[in-house]
Design goal:
By secondary structure, the protein is of the alpha/beta class. It is built from 16 helices and 13 strands. Helix 1 packs parallel to helix 2, helix 9 packs parallel to helix 14 and helix 14 packs across helix 15. Keywords: Isomerase.
Length: 373
């Protein structure tokens, strides 16, 4: 069976990397890897870490590229690769522009699509944007759906997806995380090694969502600045996004404080280990809501809704929204109330046990046999 995996951003690469390795190890599978490089530098870091050498690299990234430009370049580039390789199935991941365009390219060549991390839904097509619509449309194109949780399965069933095409697997990000955590990890940035993680409350921040640019991000960063000023034990670390719009607001609200570290984006291994050393994590990212609970770290979600309600139900994340007072209140409770913190830190992660890739490979073999019969 020839299986082509397609991804283009760092988050996709992190979650697809352990699956690529699992496919490569199986003697019954010919693995073909195609990357779009929707994120060039950050993608390369993950490929190097997991020792993945793509068969095809479309290298589509351009400065200031629009969604339409990304979509069209991926669609045309992936079409050529598919025509050359003619795989039995193309695996796409999650909800990026690479995901939707790759699925469309496969569909146009009548090649089946497998959707890894299928079934996430926020219920608002503009939040996250454009990811919510990307995953909705990919679900209509996919032939087999690898859903991380029962909630994801239920979402697909509500939309009329055939239950026989859905496989509950857990999330591959847990597989990736298990492979890189090291209690003795040493950071390249010496400032991170000098932090007293045992006695300081280190808050790790990530923020980059398009829908948060402008007033929401000003609210978030303003609340975080006040938290650092009000609690002397708090140290904030922000690996700030490359987007100049994010950096401008961050510099305005978070710059010039001795307990706020604005650092360049970290490679995945370093970031995963920094999560493990942190007290709590504040983020508008999706994947971190899945990763951090495996490390026993509460997550404050800086969005008005999340497509990961299982985490909210399990008590591993708290949705704070984007208003100054709400962000401040939710986070200060976790900083000042040991019981509230312990309840979140001790909650069970609903996103899996680290064996998602094994389940996906097994399901692909079953699918292939069903096609042959």
């Amino acid at each position: 069976m020839k299986v082509m995996t397609l991804f283009g951003t760092r988050p996709e690469a992190i979650k697809m990397a352990p699956l690529v390795k699992a496919l490569e190890m199986d003697p019954e599978i010919e693995s073909v890897v195609c990357v779009t490089a929707q994120h060039r530098e950050m993608l390369d870091q993950v490929l190097e870490l997991f020792e993945i050498k793509p068969n095809y690299d479309l290298n589509i990234m351009k400065s200031g590229q629009s969604l339409s430009e990304i979509t069209s370049r991926v669609l045309l580039g992936v079409e050529e690769v598919i025509k050359k390789e003619m795989p039995d199935i193309v695996l796409v991941h999650g909800d990026t522009s690479t995901t939707l365009s790759g699925a469309m390219a496969a569909f146009y060549q009548q090649i089946p699509v497998g959707h890894v991390e299928a079934g996430l839904r926020s219920g608002n097509k503009y939040s996250p944007y454009p990811e919510e619509v990307n995953r909705l449309l990919t679900s209509r194109l996919a032939e087999i759906h690898f859903a991380a949780t029962q909630g994801n399965v239920d979402n697909l069933l509500k939309e009329g997806i055939n239950a026989q095409t859905i496989v509950k697997t857990g999330n591959t990000v847990i597989d990736a995380l298990k492979s890189v955590i090291d209690d003795a990890y040493v950071f390249e940035d010496e400032r991170l090694n000098q932090i007293d993680y045992d006695h300081k409350k280190v808050v790790l921040l990530t923020a980059h969502r398009r829908e948060n640019l402008g007033k929401p991000m000003e609210n978030i960063f303003g609340a975080i600045r006040k938290l650092v000023e009000d609690f002397e034990e708090v140290v904030l670390i922000f690996p700030w996004h490359l987007n100049p719009a994010v950096r401008h607001v961050a510099q305005k609200y978070l710059g010039g404080h001795e307990r706020i570290l604005l650092i360049e984006p970290l490679e995945y291994e370093a970031f995963a280990n920094l999560q493990g050393k942190s007290y709590l994590i504040m983020t508008d990212s999706g994947g971190i809501q899945e990763e951090a609970p495996s490390l026993g770290k509460p997550v404050v979600v800086l969005r008005t809704e999340t497509e990961r309600p299982e985490a909210v139900a399990a008590g591993t994340v708290a949705v704070a929204g984007v208003e100054f007072e709400d962000v401040y209140d939710v986070t200060q409770t976790l900083i000042s109330d040991p019981n509230a913190y312990a309840k979140m830190a001790g909650a069970v992660n609903p996103y899996g046990d680290g064996y998602a890739c094994e389940r996906i490979v097994s399901a692909l073999k079953v699918w292939k046999k069903s096609k042959e019969n």
